[in-house]
Design brief:
The chain is an alpha+beta fold and about 325 residues long. The protein is built from 7 helices and 5 strands, in the order ααββααβαβαβα. The protein folds into 2 domains: about 100 residues; about 140 residues, 60s Ribosomal Protein L30, Chain: A (2-Layer Sandwich). Strands 1-2-5-3-4 form a 5-stranded mixed beta sheet. Helix 1 packs across helix 5 and helix 4 packs across helix 5.
């Protein structure tokens, strides 16, 4: 038997095995690609939903501010009207004196004169009654508006005090991380916890490292019992373009995937109600510092008070 014939039984299995390996590799890569597409679609849907929720909250806040200003202006106008009515009240007193004079004349005059005086007396009485009713109605309306304004201002003060106390608690919980890529600030009635990527993600990754998990867990524990709090997690990137072959399409995708990674850790580390948490991707379009890319690559956790109660309070107030 020739050497070729002796080698043939060994060569054929090796050739068949070599042909099968790329096919299985292709199927695995194809499955991974479809999974990544589904993850991308889900993340983009959540980003769009988050964007709509943020716009709705902003609209409600602007409407609340407008209504509060309108209520203050109305109260000022009613105060001016009250002063005007006080002047009219003095005139009412003068009319009352005129009424007494006519009554005295009625008692002393003849019947024809009496009839005329009675007519004038009734007209004066009706005029007096109308002015008194108008003054009483204005006083009640002014009192109602002042009470509603006081209630609204008290609720706003309570919300502001609660947010300040929450900021202090969050800062205390994150003391070991502030100055190391993490800042806590309060503005526009909200608390912003900003975490630079160096604290959370390796370059180009959407997986939070151990140090970042520790910071996020501390944050989640500090706010998990706040029932009147809405939490938005925003992912931000720099302007560098995504390299070909990356697991995400562009900076929009990268910012969304990083935001959803943070949201999952917040929920896994605490008893946060998922209904109160939103993940959003901002891409490269809201830079913290246009001259410092490292500061633009960040996650911002925005803690906002639930404004529904205030909105309903203003809705129930008097309309102009």
């Amino acid at each position: 038997m020739t050497p070729l014939r002796r080698s043939l039984p060994l060569i054929l299995p090796i050739a068949l095995f070599t042909a099968c390996v790329p096919a299985r590799k292709y199927e695995e890569l194809n499955a991974r690609y479809k999974s990544m597409q589904e993850s991308e679609s889900g993340a983009l849907a959540k980003a769009q939903q988050a964007e709509a929720t943020m716009k709705e909250q902003q609209t409600k806040l602007e409407d609340l501010t407008s209504r509060n200003g309108r209520l203050e202006r109305d109260t000022l106008t009613l105060g001016t009207s009250l002063r005007t009515m006080n002047g009219q009240y003095d005139k009412i007193n003068a009319l009352n004196n005129e009424l007494l004079d006519k009554y005295n004349a009625l008692m002393a005059g003849d019947r024809s004169e009496n009839r005329k005086l009675l007519t004038d007396l009734e007209a004066t009485r009706l005029k007096l009654q109308g002015r008194e009713d108008s003054l009483n109605g204005l006083g009640r309306s002014l009192a109602d508006r002042e009470a509603k304004l006081a209630e609204l201002q008290a609720e706003l003060a309570r919300k502001d005090a609660a947010m300040k106390a929450l900021k202090d608690r969050v800062s205390k919980a994150l003391t070991g991380f502030e100055g190391k890529g993490l800042t806590v600030t309060q503005k526009n009635g909200q608390i912003y916890v900003s975490l630079e990527n160096k604290l959370l993600f390796p370059s180009g990754s959407t997986v939070v490292d151990a140090k970042g998990r520790e910071a996020l867990s501390s944050l989640a524990k500090a706010v998990e019992n706040e029932k009147d709090l809405n939490i938005t997690v925003e992912g931000h990137t720099d302007t560098d373009k995504v390299l070909p072959g990356a697991a995400y399409k562009d900076n929009w995708d990268l910012s969304v995937l990083r935001a959803t990674s943070v949201v999952r850790i917040l929920q896994e580390s605490s008893k946060l109600d998922p209904v109160r948490v939103t993940a959003a991707g901002r891409g490269e379009y809201l830079p913290a510092d246009p001259n410092d890319k490292s500061k633009n690559r960040r996650i911002e956790v925005i803690l906002a008070p639930d404004l529904r109660q205030l909105y309903e309070l203003v809705q129930d107030g008097p309309e102009k």
